Amino acid sequence: MKRLSIGALSRATGVKATTIRWYEDEGLLPPPARTEGGHRAYDEAHLRRLGFIRHARELGFAMPAIRSLLDLADHPERDCGTAHGAAAAQVAAIDARIRRLQALRAELVRVPALCAGGPAAACGILEVLADHAHGHCLDAGHGGPDGAGHGLADGAGPEIPAGGPRDPPTGDPPTGDPPAGDRRG
């Protein structure tokens, strides 16, 4: 296979160059060879590994789980119990997220009935949105001491906050897409 520049690797995988460099810095991608001019030169192994990382991110795996799965893939003689555990944990996290979204949807379906039009000062929707401790939400965690008005008491929140020390550059969606504009080689 011909060597790929960082731009070609980015186009081939849909992962921006900034994120590719971040994955290198974090040790998730091995350092590529360099051209005589000092530019990165990636090979088929980089393409496959970056595809693995991107697919894992698309499935919602957190960076520590991806790191563990990559380590397991690098040692095929090991027992795959770690992979099974990571996948089962991800399914449980998705199920919790679905329950949370269903509760949010039910709340939002109910809210429009609180306003029949008229002056904003009498709008029931605005009143409910302003009152985090109203006790009307279908989500028991909403407004509670643990949820701080955000419904996170059920543990459905992310393991690591977005932009945390183990996530790709700030503002990346789960695919690892960093902010546009960085074109370093």
Blueprint (SSEs and pairs):
Elements (H helix, E strand, L loop, with lengths): L5 H8 L3 H9 L7 E2 L5 E2 L2 H15 L4 H12 L6 H30 L13 H7 L55
Antiparallel strand pairs: 1-2
Distance between the termini: 20 Å
Into how many domains do the coordinates divide? 1
> N-to-C SSE series?
HHEEHHHH
Strand segment tally:
2
> Order of strands across the biggest sheet?
1-2
Mean pLDDT: 79
Q: In this structure, how is the largest beta sheet organized? A: 2 strands, antiparallel
Proportion of residues in β-strands: under 5%
Q: Roughly how many Å is the radius of gyration?
A: 22 Å
Second rung of CATH, namely the architecture: Orthogonal Bundle
Instruction: Estimate the helix proportion, in percent.
Output: 40-55%
Structural class: mainly alpha
The CATH class is identified as Mainly Alpha
Would you tell me which CATH topology applies?
A: Multidrug-efflux Transporter Regulator, Chain: A, Domain 2
Low-confidence stretches: 145-166, 170-185
Give the overall shape, derived from the CA principal axes. Answer: elongated
Number of helices: 6
